[in-house]
TrEMBL record:
One of the Pfam families matching this protein, by short name: EF-hand_7
Coiled-coil portions: none
SUPFAM superfamilies: EF-hand
Protein name: EF-hand calcium-binding domain-containing protein 1 isoform X1
InterPro entries in alphabetical order: EF-hand-dom_pair, EF_Hand_1_Ca_BS, EF_hand_dom, Recoverin
Region (Disordered): 1-39
């Protein structure tokens, strides 16, 4: 029980006690009986509270994720522990940043998972993914399977399975999903332009930087558009990546490097 709650309960008890004493006619039971009753009530209350407390890692949680992902059970346990630590860290940082900008000190930290701002910081700091917001937002949507604006523990672990241990097919499907901005099953010419325009460095001396982007879009389509319909289907994208693996992240970084992935997994196994 925290100090504030204990103080409030003591004050409440004192008030009740004071009322009973002022009546005068009340006969108090022996102290031994009072202590015994209090002990029974305390034990009953503790039992009820404990019955409502969920375990840190539910019994079937690890087994279910073991079936759904490519992580070992040890890695899943480590990821569960790391999730809580990272949410606390990035939640505190996010709250401090917002408070500084808005001059509001009392902001609730979404301890149940990562919100968009926290997740963007996580991608940048832990995985070195420093792409534009358009891509980090798409990565967030990939993780947020419940579509409730928060990445929960199981979603985080399931998403990381693709980023850190995904097969070639899984990684191709993932990157295609990230680049398909409107989720219509195609990466259109307009989407490619938007993605490349955001990730390419613009030079002040360029009279019309968009013209250079348009030329690059045409080059990409000539190389990857197998059926020449001016848009990339999943088959177009997959065929091109299988032929040339560097095309996997052709429109912006959305995966951690192999070295970073290995370092992150090593840190997971050492979490206490």
């Amino acid at each position: 029980m925290d100090a504030v709650t204990q103080k409030a309960m003591t004050k409440k008890s004192n008030l009740k006690s004071g009322t009973k004493v002022s009546r005068g006619s009340k006969q108090w039971p022996p102290a031994k009986t009072v202590n015994s009753n209090r002990k029974q009530l305390s034990e009953l209350s503790s039992t009820k509270l404990m019955s409502k407390v969920k375990p840190i890692i539910p019994p079937n949680f690890v087994d279910n994720l073991f079936k759904q992902t490519r992580f070992t059970k040890k890695e899943i346990v480590g990821l569960c522990k790391l999730f809580k630590k990272l949410v606390a860290i990035y939640g505190a940082e996010s709250t401090s940043s917002v408070a500084a900008m808005s001059s509001v000190a009392l902001i609730t930290i979404p301890t149940q998972g990562f919100d968009r701002l926290m997740f963007r910081e996580f991608l940048q700091n832990e995985f070195g993914i420093t792409t534009e917001e358009i891509l980090t937002d798409r990565i967030f949507c990939f993780f947020d399977q419940r579509n409730d604006g928060v990445i929960h523990e199981d979603e985080w672990i399931t998403g990381l399975s693709v980023l850190l241990k995904g097969t070639q097919d899984e990684r191709i499907k993932y990157t295609f999903t990230i680049y398909d901005l409107n989720n219509d099953g195609f990466i259109t010419k307009e989407e490619i332009f938007s993605l490349l325009r955001n990730c390419l460095v613009k030079h002040p001396q360029d009279e019309d930087p968009d013209e250079g982007v348009k030329e690059l879009v045409d080059i990409v389509l000539r190389k990857m558009d197998c059926d020449n319909d001016t848009k990339l289907s999943f088959e177009d994208f997959s065929t091109s990546v299988i032929k040339q693996s560097l095309l996997l992240e052709a429109f912006g970084q959305c995966l951690p490097s192999r070295e970073i992935s290995e370092n992150f997994l090593n840190s997971v196994n050492s979490v206490q």
